Amino acid sequence: MPAALEERIKAFLDGSPHAVVGASTDREKYGNKVLRVYQQNNRQVYPVNPKADEVEGLKAYPDLASLPEKVHGISVITPPQVTEKVVEQAAELGIKNIWMQPGAEFPEAEERGEELGLNIVPGTACALVVLGYTEH
């Protein structure tokens, strides 16, 4: 892993809490697995899903603006076009750290995040690998 990428990941993980945008109620989907890897690592995390009331026993929120507190960073598991909107909303809310999980990355969204001065962890790095996800 390149040193610059390691620094971005460290900055992302150095704070708390986090939110998972695209958290899923389906345990087979990455939006659920990423949420669970935060839970497995005893990290405070909020699921963001406009269609769910609860994900993995946690109250779900329809969008970033609805979260009960400002989060340090967000993991994004959304379709690429949605990712671009999420980056804009995060910047408006002062969220500086965005981890675009594999499949959610979108070059325009990454570029926009960089323009806004955000710490973007690209989809070449997966939170499940970095945080050591285990299936259960």
Note the gap between the termini. 27 Å
Give me the oligomer status: single chain
Profile the largest sheet. Answer: 5 strands, parallel
Low-confidence stretches: none
Shape: globular
SSE string: HEHEEEEHEHEH
Mean pLDDT figure: 92
Helix/strand class: alpha/beta
Strand content: 15-25%
CATH architectural category: 3-Layer(aba) Sandwich
Task: List the strand order in the largest sheet.
Answer: 2-1-5-6-7
Q: Estimate the helix proportion, in percent.
A: 25-40%
What is the tally of helical segments? 5
Q: What top-tier CATH class fits best?
A: Alpha Beta
Computed over alpha carbons, the radius of gyration is 13 Å
CATH topology type? Rossmann fold
* Quantity of strands, as a count: 7
CATH H level, superfamily name: NAD(P)-binding Rossmann-like Domain
Q: What is the total number of structural domains?
A: 1
Brief summary:
The chain is 36% helix and 17% strand. It has 136 residues and is of the alpha/beta class.
Annotation keywords:
single chain; 17% strand; 136 residues; 36% helix; Rossmann fold; alpha/beta
Structure description:
The chain is an alpha/beta fold. The protein contains 5 helices and 7 strands; from the N terminus they run αβαββββαβαβα. It has a 5-stranded parallel sheet, sandwiched between helices. A two-stranded antiparallel sheet has the order 3-4. Strand 1, helix 2 and strand 2 form a beta-alpha-beta unit. Helix 3 packs parallel to helix 4. It is globular.
Write the layout of secondary structure elements.
Blueprint: H1 3-13, E1 18-21, H2 30-40, E2 45-48, E3 54-55, E4 58-59, E5 73-76, H3 80-92, E6 97-100, H4 107-115, E7 119-121, H5 127-131
Parallel strand pairs: 1-2, 1-5, 5-6, 6-7
Antiparallel strand pairs: 3-4
Helix pairs in contact: 3-4
